[in-house]
Amino acid sequence: MNKRNNFRRMNKNNKNIGGYKHVHRIAPFYIGKLDKKKRSLGFVDPITDEEITKIKREVDLSYFTKKEEYNVQNIKGLNESVHISEARMGTANDGDIVLIQIVRGENLLKSEGIIKYILKRQRNTLVGVFQASKEFGFVVPDDKTFISDIFIPKKEVFGAKDGDKVLVEVTKFVNDRKSNSEGKIIKIVARKGENYMELKSLLAENGIEEEFSPEVMFEAENTATEVHEDEIKNRVDLRNIRTYTIDGEDAKDLDDAVSIEKKQNYIVHVSIADVSHYVKENSFMDKEAVKRGNSIYLIDTVIPMLPTALSNDICSLNAGVDRLAMTVKAEIDNQGNILDYDIFKSVVKVDRRMSYKEVQNIIDGNVEDEDKNDFKLFEKLANILIKRRTKNGYINFDIPEIEVELDEKGKAIGVDYKTRYFANKIIEHLMLTANEIVAEEYNKLEVPVIYRVHETPDPDRVLEINEQLEEYGVKINVQKEEGKNGKKDDGRFIPQKEYIRVLNEIEKKKKEQEEGIDLSKDSSEYIDYSHVSYLLLRSMRKAKYLEKNLGHYGIGSEYYLHFTSPIRRYSDLYTHRMISKYLKNKNYFKENNLYNEYESKAKIISEVISETERLAIDLERQYDDIKISEYVSNFDGETFDGVVVSKTNFGMFVNIGKEIEGLVRKEGLPEGMVITDYKVGQKVKVLVYEVNQELGQIDLKLVTK
User: Fold this and answer.
1) What is d(CA 610, CA 606) in angstroms, rounded to the nearest whole number?
2) DSSP H or E segment with residue 66
3) Could you give the domains of the chain?
4) Cβ(185)–Cβ(166) under 8 Å?
5) How far apart are alpha carbons 45 and 78 in whole angstroms?
6) CA–CA separation, 281 vs 409, rounded Å?
7) What is the reported pTM?
8) Helix (H) or strand (E) holding 214
9) What is the tens place of the pLDDT at every residue in 145-178?
10) Are the C-beta atoms of 171 and 152 separated by less than 8 Å?
11) Using N-to-C axis directions, what is the helix angle for 570-584 and 422-444, rounded to 10°?
């Protein structure tokens, strides 16, 4: 089916797709992605400029142009999510790319929209429970936002039995809300009653394969299991330098190892597993790694980018064995300045495998240790690097992480804060330093690596977030360069120091409030400032991968990339491969006129892995939400002290502790009260009203005295 006919088919009833006919013809059209699950209601979210361009290439909009008498070139992207009521969604499903118009609201943050056209069905597979009948069956989707149940002809049952979790391919979408979609079962996800059913369903619905293909496994199983002498003859031998891995207690894929000494200045080695030595370009393992893009970490499950024969063995910098590495050696003075550095291939032998907790205990003096001096040096250097980096614009949001405890059957039995030690920051800032050094070096040498870029915040987005920040008594000041009208953001910009200033002001307000004599935590005037960082983070653009260097706003780096985790991120593996080519022949890209070819390849890969990263983050969040809601369901009807953390035109989100958030809908407010009567940071009392475990959603109700 050609693009035009497909577009017409999806929008067969587009005269009234959202249930409303009164939208003015010349109202602006916006393109975005429908999200029917994330926040208990429907939203159309912004997509990137690159995604918009791609959609315009894929979808023939001449039909739309003629129908609406509207220039396709005037279609805009969104700066902020727009609320869509169910009546205005038509037959669009979660994830669909749609065109909307705004029907009311002064700005996008407070607006409501109507879906006018479905541009692209984003998915045609989903997971659900099979209901068997004699001559046919139905699949009831786990995703309750899907427009209908799915009719399955008898010949398409695929051996499924009543109650099984299945993956179904939709072969015919409905064009109205009264019919059923049709499909065929293509996989049995789990038999009725199996453990970890939510996890299996989540992976299947998102097309995530836990197992590797036979071709990939054959390559992995035939990869060397130890380092041979002929592999190290052209490498720098660092086996005589005392070296450590410092990671989580349960980590098995150990990418990085560090060493330190202090003369007049600090001398550090950051050695990273040389994965590119084992994963050859265009091999089956390489192609699968590109496809996966990154490892996915889901509470107690890891979906690795590479088979465990590599990720946990020959590529992991395990203690006591020789391992091949790529090393950044840096000389750093007492002010954090990089005085000298070198980047080279090496062979290392890690002396000790340490956890963050173990290192922290040594630093704090809780235990005596033979390597205490080294760890104290790491601590001093990390403090120096943090001070230097903050001066250069590094923004430390310091947002707490939570962890969910599961029992042996995968059921959530607890939620708590994840302990974060200063030892974590030691490794974080050593890795940041290595990434910056590599990015600047190979940018100047014109080696076609993949960069990690983070652009400056969108000023309009910042101004919208300011509306809620001002309730905390702070705001981000948007500045403007003279004579920049007509350019990107009209010359408006937000220096990093603005975020740092706001964070410092909040810390000051917290301290003043805690020291207040007449103001207790039970006071109605008490403000909880602990969630300001989330609002600030929401004002930022998302970081992404790119073939060109644009710097990293949040870190405050002019040059930045990912180099330090090639076991679990393809960007790092690709960059290692480019560096290896350069180190072997410094004229490789110039002599062979290959720079443009590899830069084009880097561009394609950057788009792919930026998308796989978004998918991984979304999956991790979804699974966390599902398990947290499962845990909270044990407290149905119970009352909690909460804090208002954000407000929208449909309700407000309340944190009930340990970063667990639920929605108080505006319909559920006390009589006579409206959303604007409440402030972000305000303490409220709520009860757990309704929990949807499948969608990971928690509804709360305010409790009045």
Assistant:
1) 6
2) helix 62-68
3) 3-120 (2.40.50), 125-205 (2.40.50.700), 214-441 (no CATH), 456-540 (no CATH), 636-702 (2.40.50.140)
4) yes
5) 7
6) 40
7) 0.86
8) helix 214-221
9) 888 999 999 999 999 999 999 999 999 998 777 7
10) no
11) 50
